[in-house]
Amino acid sequence: AISDRIEDVEPQVQAFLHIDLEYAKAQAKRIDQLPAHELERLPLAGVPIAIKDNMTTTAMPTTAGSKILEGFMAPYNATVVNRLEAAGAIIIGKTNLDEFAMGSSTEHSAYHVTRNPWDLERVPGGSSGGSAAAVAAQMVPAALGSDTGGSIRQPASYCGVTGFKPTYGRVSRYGLIAFASSLDQIGPLTRSVDDAWLLYQVIAGHDPFDATSLTQPVEPRTAEPVQWNQLRIGIPKEYDGEGLDPRVQERYHQVLSTLEAQGAKLIEISLPHTHYAIATYYLVAPAEASSNLSRFDGVRYGYRAQGNDLLEMYERTRAEGFGPEVIRRILLGTHALSAGYYDAYYLKAQKVRTLIRQDFETAFGQVDVILTPTTPDIAFKFGEKSQDPLQMYLSDVFTVTANLAGIPGISTPAGLISGIPVGIQWLGPALQENRLLQIARGFE
Ligand code: GLN
User: Fold this and answer.
1) CA distance 67 to 70
2) 423: β partners
3) Where are the coiled-coil regions (predicted)?
4) Contact 56/74 with Cβ under 8 angstroms?
5) pTM score, two decimals?
6) Where do the structural domains in the chain lie, given as residue ranges?
7) Each residue of 95-107: pLDDT tens digit?
8) Do 416 and 422 meet the contact criterion of CB atoms below 8 Å apart?
């Protein structure tokens, strides 16, 4: 039973911030009692699913991994939660994350770290580290994560699972605690591409509660295989070299040879503005975060500190409620947005963002899909990067570009390096999720 598995491995892995098996059992009972003709229509009937704890649930607390939201009970479910439950899924718990999804290792959670099930000395990646670890440790077959700069794909790569970030706007952000609203996207973490596809079909599609939700219809899943000899795969030269762990590079090159042997055409492409991606992302994301996090004032949500007057209460609440990485982002973001610096930093970053998007548009004129390593390295050890924010930021170099461009990306497992998983990343044109998933599935 799922509860036995959780009992066995969760004490070591600590993927969850909250587990509610009573709630899960009640849901399972409700589904069991449905008449057969209704059950048949539920694509996820009885499937246990874990939700990253930055998506709201009325049945369980939502903390976003922050002390400032300790004990917070949301008044409504995120749209994705409603859609999963309507499809018969059983939400069993909320998974750990870097505070407000800011990080790449889950070490920035205000509660505890999550361990990589492949090696408990190593991080699971982040910020959706709890979701990736829960799937990798086989506590659940699927989980939801959120991806602002790689937070689904990077932990998927580190934990040897599949992680899919759809096109920006495909999945409703209603009920997702906002980090950087123009980059945030919810997606599944699963053990196979087909499972990710199935979950995606359930959660995607227009939602009037999210102003940036796309209205284009979500096409049904296909069983059709890929015709490798008709496929043009773009290999961006900027993703293959400096800063890339030679062992990851070797695996990546082996994958490329295999694809070539299957008949795919590999085409070298250039995404020339990749070099500026980290700098651009770490201006845009903190700028939006600084604005989004202003709502945590001790009045409307969660934690409140004592103060002699209103201002002191605000200041103490935020100083005590936010962890150091979140405070760093607020400082970076407010600086980039402040008068006198706005043009030099924020506006400049927005312009480079456009160039990055154009790089992809040009590339997709030549190729069907782009293949890159997901991360420049494999899962690192606890503490290795947490003292040096810049080192941590650099592990996002291959993932942030998809968020800046709004395009879909998926990380799938590509074998092991000394017993530690490594992933590859497939990127596709906006709204071409089905094509992308079909290709990624063909190779897994
Ligand atoms: N690691 C990146 C950051 O810290 C991405 C996080 C994310 O995608 N939520 O901002």
Assistant:
1) 5
2) 413
3) none
4) yes
5) 0.98
6) 2-203
7) 999 999 999 999 9
8) yes
